[in-house]
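Continuing the series of single-chain predictions for the mutant panel. This is the parent chain; the variants come on the following pages.
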Amino acid sequence: MSYTISDACIKCGRCAENCPMNCISEGSYKYEVNASQCIDCGTCANVCPVGAPRARA
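Parent structure:
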């Protein structure tokens, strides 16, 4: 399992700054998670002001 970032992303960068695996990077329209590096810790979701990071089903 890994996280993904929804279109609600406002590109504030908090998710990337706080990710312990450094697997989140800025994309063209929103931040993106490298699924192969994500350890499903939820840190990104906990710091996001708009709830954009979501656990993949």
